[in-house]
Amino acid sequence: xxxxxxxxxxxxxxxxxxxxxxxxxxxxxxxxxxxxxxxxxxxxxxxxxxxxxxxxxxxxxxxxxxxxxxxxxxxxxxxxxxxxxxxxxxxxxxxxxxxxxxxxxxxxxxxxxxxxxxxxxxxxxxxxxxxxxxxxxxxxxxxxxxxxxxxxxxxxxxxxxxxxxxxxxxxxxxxxxxxxxxxxxxxxxxxxxxxxxxxxxxxxxxxxxxxxxxxxxxxxxxxxxxxxxxxxxxxxxxxxxxxxxxxxxxxxxxxxxxxxxxxxxxxxxxxxxxxxxxxxxxxxxxxxxxxxxxxxxxxxxxxxxxxxxxxxxxxxxxxxxxxxxxxxxxxxxxxxxxxxxxxxxxxxxxxxxxxxxxxxxxxxxxxxxxxxxxxxxxxxxxxxxxxxxxxxxxxxxxxxxxxxxxxxxxxxxxxxxxxxxxxxxxxxxxxxxxxxxxxxxxxxxxxxxxxxxxxxxxxxxxxxxxxxxxxxxxxxxxxxxxxxxxxxxxxxxxxxxxxxxxxxxxxxxxxxxxxxxxxxxxxxxxxxxxxxxxxxxxxxxxxxxxxxxxxx
Length: 552
Hints:
Helices cover 50% and strands 6% of the residues. By secondary structure, it is an alpha/beta fold. The strands form 2 sheets. A 5-stranded parallel beta sheet has the order 2-3-4-1-5, sandwiched between helices. Helix 13 (257-273) links the parallel strand 3 and strand 4. Helix 17 (372-385) crosses helix 18 (394-415) and helix 21 packs antiparallel against helix 22 (478-491). The chain is flat and about 85 Å long. The protein starts with 22 loop residues before the first helix and ends with a helix. The mean pLDDT is 87.
């Protein structure tokens, strides 16, 4: 029981919804789940922080940066990858269907090597860069085994101080020069662009493709292997001096989907390669759905996803950990406005509902996908509704739920827009249904109301594709359309399914992230997530209906 009265003031929040603007509370209220030690441990292969939007990936990278002495953050938005997409030489290779995976790996290896050397030798300008190269040459010029590595440094040593995007442009320009030399006199008049390829005969295209492929395959990746060996032996031989590169914002729109997937796959391969340098570590944050997309689009023969498991840190939050997070933040927010008195969740939120009913914290948690952003957003909405009051009532929580539910629906659309660009239309199949339903509840009228807008869409959404096939008479039945929609809704966590009467409901954010066609067809019960009940006008189960006693 508090000694002094408190008040929920206007604009009071338990935190911002993104780590970039939440630093103050993040520093004071960080919940350490053991992830921090694993990521800062250079002997641990764990390097890829994986989680859904709002699970705390960026916050974890921020804390890693606070924890270590020598680190640098790389933002893919600063690497000018779009320069690659629009450059004539890359469009030339794409038009020839030449595999550029090795080129993307070379780019990353070079960029990462440069960033680690900048960290290690504090290279900030051309003078520092020249000094580094001079000292390196003096130390290793007589060692014949380091010949190729030194050749590489001779070529790039005076440019190490440049920004990452300048390095990317330099390497791309070199690729263009090498390609011109390889294509040779015979095709001197051919423009190294997509338009230039269109002017060639089929036989000429085959010959030019062979020569262009040779250029990519002869890239300096082998020389860079020797550079890594040299760095391990000469520059990073002290196990006590540790260096980190942190990479975030990989899920932002810094390149088109195809290029982004190729670039991210190349980064993952280079994260593995840099493990040979013991005191350095690359840590990257990545959304789970984006990693799935990367592997699907770049899968080649012999690909084995399990080989990457040891590098991945899956962020998961338990209910208890989320409760702890809210407790810490509530106390910190009120401590900054009042005396040092400890303010708890129970001091602000209502008691459990009548007759042994649900507690306020469970009410909140049931409407989240067990991630910090959700619970912070819901509590912030409660504070907004209850501003200028001493406590939050069940009535205020109900009012906050309506706002929160609309925002969660909007967030799902934004989070999954790349994979399901027609999600806005697809989710309408749930509107007005009971909280727990069977496939038979989706009648012909409601199905057609959703299918018609989907048919008008022009995108690669799986639901759009299956609807077009249905209307175009390509052997698709209504049951297939419904299965495609339910698969989408399951993956985004809008619904959970029960496959048989003996099973419990499974959810993508707790159990398996996707379900097979067979599983979705066998589902005998479907449950709509409570976070969407208010936004989609869901008919709730009787036990979730508030009594007058609860509200009063």
